[in-house]
Design goal:
225 residues, mainly alpha, 2 domains, 3-stranded antiparallel β-sheet, two-stranded antiparallel sheet, 7 helices, 6% strand
């Protein structure tokens, strides 16, 4: 009996020591080492790829899209449709999960796509309505947007519904409207878009893109100057 008790005590002691050592290694030292390396080598990404405006206020992440809408006329009306604030560059549509989704305005609760076929009547109507709105919103007194000028990303959501980027074509389509709404020269806004146009990753992966939040943050600074 004493031998059995002694063996059991030794096993328990060994288990507790192993637990303590592994807790220190895996629960303290390893996370501290990984966090330290990330802060030194990838500080921006490790902290969420935050974007700050001119006064240092964090306005969002370069990885997550945002909406730029006018305030609701009736905040208590859940059925009131969102209206875009036309002084800002607009992102892709965010109805990635369809009309009954909680992710209709870049909500982070969940993400996903409609999974509807290209000839689905509901999806076709969403695209047609979005295209008409893009043409109407971006046609100004001196510039007319033609139907063939509207790129696909202006009327379709991404697979996640959270895409932070738009194509250079969609950004350029919005230039005249943004310039007019902010009292800026078209050339100034075109230059801003070019400055924020990123090429393919490593020269061959993905497509050229413009980060909407970065673009609008610098647009805000330009409009103030």
């Amino acid at each position: 009996m004493n031998t059995s008790v002694g063996n059991t005590a030794r096993l328990i002691g060994a288990g507790l020591r192993a637990l303590l050592v592994l807790t220190v290694l895996c629960g303290v030292l390893y996370p501290l080492a990984v966090t330290g390396i990330a802060q030194v080598a990838f500080r921006d990404r490790a902290n969420g790829s935050e974007i700050k405006d001119g006064d240092g206020t964090v306005v969002g992440s370069s990885l997550i899209g945002q909406t730029y809408n006018l305030p609701k006329t009736d905040p208590d009306d859940p059925e009131e449709a969102a209206r875009p604030d036309l002084k800002w560059f607009q992102p892709r549509p965010s109805n990635g999960l369809g009309a009954n989704s909680v992710n209709t305005q870049y909500a982070l609760i969940l993400s996903g796509a409609t999974n509807k076929a290209a000839d689905n009547p509901e999806l076709v109507k969403l695209v047609e309505d979005a295209k008409a709105a893009v043409i109407a919103d971006n046609t100004t007194a001196g510039h007319t947007v033609r139907p063939q000028d509207v790129p696909a990303d202006a009327v379709t959501s991404s697979g996640s519904g959270l895409d932070p980027n738009i194509s250079p074509a969609y950004a350029e389509l919005q230039v005249h409207r943004v310039a007019e709404q902010n009292g800026l020269d078209v050339q100034q806004v075109e230059k801003l878009v070019r400055q924020h146009t990123e090429g393919r990753t490593l020269g061959f992966m993905g497509e050229p893109r413009v980060n909407v939040l970065r673009l609008n943050t610098d647009l805000k600074a330009l409009a103030r100057s």
